[in-house]
Each structure stands twice: as structure tokens, then as C-alpha cells.
Amino acid sequence: MPDWSDLQHDLLVLIINRLNLIEDYLNFGIVCKSWHSVVTKDSFNSNLPRVPWLMLAEEEDDNTCRKFFSLYNCMILKKRIPKASGKRCMESMGWLITVGKDEGEISLLHPFSGVQIELPHQNTTEHYELNQTPVPWTFVLKAVLSANPSHTSDYVLMVIEGHYQFLSFWRPGDLLWTRMRKFPHISDVVYFTGHFYVVDNSGCVQVCDVDDSEPTKSRIIAELAPWIDGKYYILESLGSLFVVSQDGVDIKYVKDDRERIPLTHIQGEDGEEEKMYTYKTRNVLVYQIDLDTCKTTETRDLGDRAFFLGANSSLSVQASQFPGIKPNHIYFTDNCLGAYLHFEEGGGSDMGVFNLADGSIQPHYDGVSLSRVCPPIWVTPTLC
Fold first, then answer.
1. Which of 31, 206, 322, 332 is within CB 3.0–4.6 Å of 35 for a Cys-Cys bond?
2. Reduced 3-state DSSP string for the chain
3. How deeply is 291 buried, as exposed, middle or buried, from its count of CB atoms within 10 A (0-12, 13-18, 19+)?
4. How far apart are CA 369 and CA 97, in angstroms?
5. Bigger pLDDT: 273 or 307?
6. Using CA atoms, how far apart are residues 176 and 173, in angstroms rounded to an integer?
7. CA-CA distance, 108 to 115, in Å (whole number)?
8. How many C-beta neighbours within 10 Å does residue 120 have?
């Protein structure tokens, strides 16, 4: 009887072309050497539906590797990514945007192929001295690609940078960052229908075009509620624009350590007594924006969609395509720098799944994964 490891190459190709999820695709390649030989860039179907994996925080005993948690099958994949060691990471289109902890160098890094693209240093942004952050790894707050660098060299990388949260962009070949001067205090950005749309800390939604002869020009699309105690996110879903308000990331003293992961507040200069603190998200609101009328409508029904928010490019997926993904839910990671930098353990405690229908929050990862530099983030898996 033939051994399964001796299956003909053509038959293996037929099998792999029928796989629907990238998790199954990668698992196929670890069965044996002959099966692994079929798992190539050319055989990979780039149109496969993908749901983000949770890239866990760096572990002290093995800082060259990262673990990825799959919501689909609750399995953990360990991947060696030495170029991300000791760096803060953000994500867009399956690429990591890394910022060095000590020197603040910035790169684009594909975590699965190892391809790296060096970017101009943060000190090439306009008036850098007046816009620095207390530590260099927090200078870039968010990064969003207009197109996948694996497929084209015609793309723009837009970042939210510095203490004043300005917008700056970079194109391949540029030697420095270009500042969008009229865009301070930005909370999130998305590339949609050929334009970059942003939401600022006051809930104002604007559109800007880097290809315009005057890239500092903008147009206000909508204005939401005033400043909230939390963060705004902006994303596209099924051809529509949405803004999400993640409200109530507060810091409080913990008396019952069963409530949340207890965190140690960094002592101030006054030598205040050490206590155990924590913080958490209280509520999430979702608004749909009509670009024709510039009207906003609050919604509690995303249908079959699920949103993924955090230090990644905000993303929507069709839940029914992925076992284990809940429709009408918001999957979020800890992205509140203003809170977790106050704690010795860092961020990673405020993660969960928000049920938009009833307002409840459940965990999506039961383990503990904390870091001051790079807490867990969502990463959409791609092979190229």
C-alpha cells in the first residue's frame, strides 16, 4: 500500500488548490518534505480569505521568535523573525512596520518571507525636535499602506507620527517623510477608493489625497461626537466607510485581582505608594458614514461582518468564511499607549471581543501576553 508521503506531485497540487484557509495551507507544508515542496509562492492562492492572527508579545527567553495565535483553530504557530526583535510593530496588508526601541529606525518587514524595506529615519520628519515622543519606539502610532509592496512598487505608506499625531507619508525612493501639515491629532487612517480618510481625536472625518498638487488640502466628510475617553478607528467594510469609538479606557486601582490582570503602576517622582492598577474598555460604538450625504448613522448591526482593531490597519472580514469568528463583533487589542506606558508590565491586558448587539465583552485569547514595547497585534497572514 503506498505511503501518503509518496503521493505524486500533481496530486498534491490538486489537493492544495482545494484548501480554503491559509492555516490549512501552512499546516499542509509541515506534514513531510514532499508535501512541503508543494507549498511555494507560485502555488499560493493570494485570493484565499484570511482572518488576522494575533501576534503575541516577544518572550524574554526567545526574542528572535514570535508566536501567532489563530482564532480559527486556537493553535499557535511559532515563527522566527529576528528582524523584529526588540522593536515595536504595527501592521498593514500583512506587513509589519517596525520601529527600533533604542535608535528609532523604521522598516517595512514581511514576517513570513523575511523581506525588509528600510525607510527614512523618524528624524527626517518635519520639525522632528518639536514633535518627539518620550521614547523613540512610540514615535509612529499607526501605519497604513495604499497597496501591497509584494505586488507593486507603486504604493504609499501613510503614518501617524509624533507627539502631535501628524500625518506623514513615504513613497519608494523618497529619502525623507513628507508632512501633511494640516492634519494634527489624528487617531486613525484608512486607504479607501483611492484616497486616505482620517479621523482625528475630536471625531472629525476628513479625506486627503497625496497625489494632489497641494497634498495639504483636505475636505471634512463628517463630524462625530466630541472628544471621548478612548480612541477612534476608521475602516472600510463592504464598500462603506465606518468609524468606531472605543470608549472608556480608564486606569483604576484593583482591589479584586480576579477582575482583570493586575498591573504595577510606575512610581512617580513623589514616591507614591506602589499599588496594583488596571484599565479596560467599557463600550464600543459604530457609525456608518454616507459619503454622498456626509451623514453619520450609529449602527448595532454589522450583519455577517467582524471588525479587527488595534495597532493594525483597521480591518473588516466576513465572519461566515472563518470557523470561530463571530459576526457583529469587534475584536480589539490593547492599543492605548497613554495607559499602558504607565505600567511596568506594559500593554496587552485590554484585549477582547465586543458584542455589538448586547454590549458584552469576552476574551479572544486566554493567555497573558504583555509588553511595554510591542503588545499583541493583529497580523493578516500572507506568504508573499
1. 31
2. CCCHHHCCHHHHHHHHCCCCCHHHHHHHHCCCHHHHCCCCCCCCCCCCCCCCEEECCCECCECCEEEEECCCCCCEEEEECHHHCCEEEEEECCEEEEEECCCCCEEEECCCCCCEEECCCHHHCCCHHHHCCCCHHHCEEEEEECCCCCCCCCCCEEEEECCCCEEEEECCCCCCCEEECCCCCEEEEEEECCEEEEEECCCEEEEECCCCCCCCCCEEEEECCCCCCEEEEEEEECCEEEEEEEECCEEEECCCCCCCCCEEECCCCCCCCCCEEEEECCEEEEEEEECCCCEEEEECCCCCEEEEECCECCEEEEHHHCCCCCCCEEEECCCCHHHHCCECCCECCCCEEEECCCCCEECCCCCCCCECCCCCEEECCCCC
3. middle
4. 20
5. 307
6. 9
7. 8
8. 16
Angle at 233 between CA 139 and CA 354, to 5 degrees: 120
| Nearest-angstrom CA–CA distance, 188 and 224 | 14
pLDDT of residue 48: 67
Cross-strand partners of 232:
245
User: Could you tell me which residue, 181 or 108, shows the higher pLDDT?
Assistant: 108
Q: Percentage of the chain surpassing pLDDT 90?
A: 60
Give the model confidence (pLDDT) of 192-225 as tens digits.
999 999 999 999 999 988 876 566 667 889 998 7
> Is the torsion defined by CA of 361, 365, 371, 374 positive or negative?
negative
Query: What is the pLDDT at residue 266?
Result: 74
Q: What is the pTM of this model?
A: 0.90
